[in-house]
Structure formats: C-alpha cells, structure tokens
Amino acid sequence: MVMLFNLTTVxxxxxxxxxxxxxxxxxxxMKIKERVTNVVGPEEPVPIRQRELSFSLxxxxxxxxxxxxxxxxxxxxxxxxxxxxxxRLNEAGNPYNLLPREVMVIKYLLxxxxxxxxxxxxxxxxxxxxxxxxxxxxxxxxxxxxPDLFINSMIRQRKEQVCKELPEILDLLTVCxxxxxxxxxxxxxxVEKSKGVLADELYIVLQEISMGKPRKNALRDMADRLAVDDxxxxxxxxxxxxxxxxxxxNVMRLQARDVRQKRRQRVEEQAMKAPVKMxxxxxFFVFPAIFIVLLGPAIIQxxxxxxx
Length: 308
Prior knowledge:
Blueprint: H1 2-40, H2 48-53, H3 57-73, H4 82-91, H5 100-125, H6 129-178, H7 183-193, H8 197-210, H9 215-226, H10 229-244, H11 248-307
C-alpha cells in the first residue's frame, strides 16, 4: 500500500511538472504569435481543425475532462450560498473560468483525496487509531480549505496589482482627456497602451458600453468586480461629475493626485511596520546564533574551571 502511494505521488509530481513546462512553452509561443500579429498583421483564415489543435493541452483535454466530472458530481452536491462564492470568484478574476458549484466539487474531491493519502501514510507508519483519526480529520479540513486559500491569494494579488496600476492609468486618462478626447475615447486609448488587470477590466467596460449598457452601470459593475476602495471612489467621482456637469478633467486630476498620495502613505506605513516585523526573526533566529558564537567559548571555559 505504501509503495502504491509512493508511485502515485511520483506520477502526480512528474505529471504536474510536465504540464507546467508544457504550459510555459505554449504561453511563450502565444506571446511570440501575438507580437508577430501586431507587427505583420492578422494571418489568413485557418481551418477549424488546425485552430482547435493550436489550443493548449488544458483547453483541449484537461478542461473538457474536468467539465464532464463536474457535470456528474454537481448533481450530488448539496445547495449552498452560491452568491458569496460567485462574488469572491469575480474578485479573484474568475480563475480558470470556474463556476461556484465546480469549486465546491473541487473542495469535496480534495478533502477525500487528502484524507485518503493521510490514511495511507498513517498506516505505513504504524500509528495508533486515535492518531490516525485526528490526522484524517486534519487532512479533510486542509483539503476543504485549500481552494479557499487559493482564491484568497488570488484576490489579494489582484487587489495589490490594481492599487499598483491605478495611478498610472489615472494619469494616462487625465492626459488623454486634457488632449481633447472624450471619456470613452480616453478609455479606449488606455486599453490600447496599457496591460494588466485594469486594462483588461476597462476593455470589458468598453465592450459593455458598445453593447448598449449605460456607462455608469458598466463602471459600477467593474468597481464591484475589483472591490478596491480607491477605484470605487474614482468611479463614484466620475458618476457624480457627469450628473452635476463638472469638468471630468479636473476630477481626473484630483483623483490621480489623491491616489498617488494614498499609495505613498501605504508605502510609508509598510516601512514603519518593517522594524516591528523584523523583531520576531531577530529574537528567535539571529540573537540565539550570536549568543552561541559570543558566549559559547566563555561557557565552555567556565564549565572546565568548575569541573576541576
């Protein structure tokens, strides 16, 4: 049984490594192809078969396989609050285009898989029944919480990236508006010249506006997806400026200055917290090593003196 578990673990690790390398190569090929398309222009229409074969392994094989598994298991998953999980997935940027019920299926599968692996390990180590039971419960909890930890990490990284990109985006919007472009034209120019989370979200806003959705509703939906206070304040200011007839250029200039000031304050706050955070590793790791190096020889000499 232990040998089977070891073989399964090695196979899974090798498969994950090969999949990661393959995806990295495919990602580089897509970047090169995109650059060539931007320089040379769009290629001639390719057959549907060749277009399907150009997709990544995840899109052609892994995603359909997971979808079929999800379609079978979703029927047996009990009802839960999908709105909260859907909101968190939107804040995380909809990783892998997962639906809320698919995330719940992954949580159940991971809980069972981790519990099974823990049971195999405990049996191989010869542990007692209570220890095995406690470790299995811990494995179930870990497998259940692992997707939540992944989603929370994605949300945190996405918000940090938005806060990092927002001042530059606002400056570019301000320059475009002061140059004579309208707000929609400025958004289009920002999408063309920028890359990142905000540029992608603004592209979605432009698509929604072109389909007939009111601009203020599209901006509010974008603010709800990002859930960043600075951007929500910016959207509220733009909507209020439109309703009151205030110059958008002045509003944009003030918002850009305020966002940069807030970012400077956050950096200063992180710098002030750094000495406090450094105390823990210094007290538990650095100081003991220094004491051993400095006081070790003296302690040895004292022990030799009193031993005579």
